[in-house]
Amino acid sequence: MNKYVVLLRAINVSGHHIIKMKDLLVSLSSLGYQNIQTYLQSGNVILESENNNVTQLKGQIRNQIQNDFGHDIAVMVFSKKYFVEVYKNNPLLKQMDIDKKKLYVAFLNISPDQVLLSKVIKNFPEIIIMIDKILYVYYTNGYGKTKVNNNFFEKKLKVIATTRNWNTVSNIYQKLIN
Questions:
Q1: pTM listed for this prediction
Q2: What is the enclosing helix (H) or strand (E) of 111?
Q3: 3-class secondary structure, 49
Q4: pLDDT at position 119
Q5: CA 66 to CA 154: how far, in whole Å?
């Protein structure tokens, strides 16, 4: 069995795209996935599948959510190995002593153009480091006060993004390795 992290974009936010986690568990179980765990109510899932094709898993899950809940949402699927690398290789933790409450990870569907990224963030105080399709972001003034949020990344970088705070990433990591 292969272990995966599934991140759903923008569910249970401000009353939109409501999906109860117990219903999501039933829905994903019907696809044959096993050992399904959810974390929080914001679309964080760990599951096991014999399928090792991330693209197929993403499509199956997206279709299932649309069929069962009527929501056409972005779904991102990462292998255990990839997610562990994202967690362990956070360059911001290696470079500075920071307040982890201000640390976030934006998971992107594709790698944005670095020139475009540097242009769109140059006037903001956030510290952003891109590795592959991951943006490690330190919000110097906090996430609640920034304009450089998930919607900003999607609009300005022409990507699909879903963002998690470092506490959530850390908790998913702990569940994944245990």
A1: 0.93
A2: none
A3: strand
A4: 86
A5: 21
CA dist 128 and 152 (Å) reads: 13
Task: Indicate whether 140 belongs to any domain.
Answer: yes
Q: CA 44 → CA 17, 26, 91, 124, 125, distances in Å?
A: 14, 15, 23, 29, 28
Domain boundary residue, one of 64, 82, 100:
82
In a domain, 171, yes or no: no
Decide: helix, strand or coil at residue 147. coil
Q: Are residues 96 and 73 located together in one domain of the fold?
A: no
- Kindly compute the dihedral angle of the four CA atoms of residues 84, 112, 14, 5, in this order, to the nearest 10 degrees: -20
Q: For residue 64, what are its two tokens?
A: 């299932």
Candidates 172, 164, 176, 171; CA nearest to 35 is 176
Average pLDDT score, the chain: 93
Instruction: Out of 82, 98, 121, pick the residue that ends a domain.
Output: 82
pLDDT at 48 over 80: yes
Is pLDDT above 80 for 27? yes
How many independent structural domains does the chain possess?
A: 2
- Could you tell me if 7 and 50 lie in one domain? yes
User: 113: which DSSP letter?
Assistant: P
Q: Residue 36: name the closest of 22, 47, 28, 26 by CA.
A: 47
Query: Which two structure tokens, joined as six digits, stand for 99?
Result: 């307040």
| Residue 109, domain CATH | 3.30.70
